[in-house]
Amino acid sequence: MNNGNLFAQVLKYENRHNPYPLYAQLRETPVSVQDDGTYVVSTHAEIRSLLFDPRVSSDEEKNLASKSGSEVSTSNEHSSQEELRSFGTFDPPDHDRLRSIVVNQFTAERIYGIRSGVEELVKDELDKCRKRDQIDIVDDFAYPLPVTVICKILGVPFEDQQFFHEQSTIFAASVDPDQAGENKRKKREAQKQVGDYMHKHIQNLRQHPGKDLLSAIMANGDMEAGQINEQELVAISIMLLIAGHETTVNLITNGMLTLLRYPEHLERLHQDPDLAPRFVQEVLRFEPPVQFRTRTTLADIEIAGTVIPKGVPLVLMLASGNRDPLQFNDPDRFDPDRQNNQHFGFGGSLHSCIGAPIARLEAELAFRALAQRLQSPRLVEDVPEYRQGASLRGPRHLLVKVDAVTDA
Predict the structure, then answer these.
(1) CA-CA-CA-CA dihedral for 354, 109, 363, 327, to nearest 10
(2) Given pLDDT bands bounded at 50, 70 and 90, which one contains residue 288?
(3) How much is the mean pLDDT over the chain?
(4) How far apart are CA 19 and CA 12, in angstroms?
């Protein structure tokens, strides 16, 4: 297999269950040019450098402009099409301005305030499984938990959660760069539907504010001061929907699969639930929910002896960097006691996951409860069925046999 088609192999579903040998081959050439002209960066130091490089853009509009040689506006007055974008595709200065507004609301007090609610949701989902000897960690637990949490954060009524679940699934299916036109069309339609919903929802919150994140942003006076407009608030909502749902589902499911493959660590967690934070940290390195991110270059960039030209497709292989032996000792071993664990599980730099504190909280409470309440859990099959996506990678189902689901 030549280096020029390794990324194409990563995208193939047949390699979804274990892409890591392909990543190891990619790391032999830290910056490689694929047959289709895509530049793939696969080593930790180079990925980290590019994550902090202002010449690397996440804005698809700038990607198109770079190829055509035209200019793209950096104004915050977005068109009707642009307003449906996710906040995660914004570049500075808009990105920095909006991110600071959201970060100011993700206070330690707010995170602590939702902890008891998440604990209750975790308990409720496992309570529903008490009389069963087999559960699907995905459908019975990992999917319903994050969508309920993010809808509470956004102030979305309980009865509309299924709508959000369906739309976020469509978003996730269209992330990979090789997706067919039909998936892209579905994504645009999902963006429109979520955008229309959130516009109406924001108008309702203006009249009847609650204790949710969007109400807090509006109450803070940022809209009146011109620091954020309604279109941008919708873009933030779309980002939180995806980041707060699909990636957390993968984090919980990948983590539970890993713990079942390493039963000695599952037993450690059963004996000492307070170890959960370090288990989450290592899962984020070992089996991250986001495997890679696509970017574009705004100028020629020389790195690792290679010049990446302006305007080319760029892929940062985050999960490959997480297994780089130049950064991590024995990287293919799951080790919750690992020190100085500087992984890319939540991305990095400007676009590090803004909802990381919530995702950590959900995963920690989920792992604690699963380790405590599932009696003698074992996989029904290994390898499980995976979802189609290579970027947002995780099992579609994770069937687990249990002797019992004990009381909380």
Answers:
(1) 50
(2) very high
(3) 88
(4) 10
For Cα atoms 118, 390, 258, give the angle at the middle one, nearest 5 degrees.
50
Question: Which structure tokens are listed for 125?
Answer: 């989902």
Cis peptide bond N-terminal to 93, omega within 30: yes
| Cα gap 350→348, rounded to integer Å | 7
Cα gap 30→399, rounded to integer Å: 37
* Token reading at 51: 């994550």
The Cβ-side half-sphere exposure at 82, using a 13 Å CA radius, reads: 16
* Owner of token pair 């620091």: 227
Range in 100-109, 189-198, 303-312, 342-351 with the lowest mean pLDDT: 100-109
For residue 259, count other CB atoms closer than 10 A to its CB. 24
Going by pLDDT thresholds of 50, 70 and 90, the confidence category of residue 62 is low
Q: How far is CA 82 from CA 75, 130, 301, in A?
A: 11, 46, 28
**Of 80, 65, 74, the residue nearest 94 (C-alpha):** 74
Residue predicted with more confidence, 4 or 89: 4
Considering only residues 58 and 39, tell me which one the structure prediction assigns the higher pLDDT: 39
CA distance 83 to 38: 28
